[in-house]
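Format notes (please read before filing issues)

Several people have asked whether sequences and structure tokens are stored in separate files. They are not. Every record keeps both together, in the order shown below: the sequence lines, then the token lines. Line labels are part of the format and must not be stripped during preprocessing.
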Amino acid sequence: MNKLREVTLKGVIPALITPMTEGGEINFPFLEKQVAYLSQAGVHGFFVCGTTGEGAYLTTPEKLAIFKVVREVSGGRQFLCAASLRPSTAMVLEEMFAFEKLEPDFFVAVTPFYGSVSQDTIAAHYRRIAQNSAVPLILYNIPGCTHNTLALDTILKLSSEQNICGIKDSSGNFISFSRGLLSETPPGFSWIQGEDYLDGPSLLNGSRGMVTGLGNVWIEPYLQMYSASARGDQDSVRKYQKKINQLYEIIRTTEGKAIAAVKAGVSCLGRSEKYLRLSEQTLSSEEANRVKAVLDSLELL
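Then the structure lines:
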């Protein structure tokens, strides 16, 4: 366990983008600017080098450099989650040990991927990581990327492991997520929603928070929604979820190009450029203009 501080996994946790140059290099000045915006707005934590951060395309040294910037700019105001999107247990462990000297508050791992694996294999993967981790482990269910679903029964079994503290569920399967929320799990286990459309409904059903990629563009409605949930104001939760749904149109209008749309949106607001590590995935000028039109309709420009 992290000896510096014990932190509860909860709140509004942006899945931080990794600003890039047109040539695909990390743009550190824009990274600092984006972290400052989110930190000063009052987010509760940072999810670093995850899917929205293009973590699958970053080297371990690049991830460590990014993490150092996030830690420095946030200045201890937020907890930090270090994500590893590696396909095998051994590769995750190697990256986890590299992160240890930077003392993240949480470590995050996806299921094994590339080949299909059983639930027993997934459970063994997470148990081995948790047993070797110096900090609490967050399970990360994103079958749209890994093609291996972390089943509810497996989550429930893993929830009782000593060093596993919660799950970020980006499956979009609200039936499974809501069943999990209402199941018997240890009191310290956090259910965290990873699908922006489901943040409000999840809070209303007892979720402890959300990890949001879309919130990189406009984090305020997420913070307002979380505060409304904390005071039991269900009408306001629904009101702010509606705002988030309107913001989601930047993804819908670009035919589901989520990371590219988020980067284009942040670019419109002067905290990044629109470029992705894989340059061919960057939005065209016409697509970026559609994103700008959505932000304009929300009076963000």
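For reference, the curators noted about this record: The longest helix spans residues 60-74. Residues 11-231 form a domain with the TIM Barrel fold (CATH 3.20.20.70).
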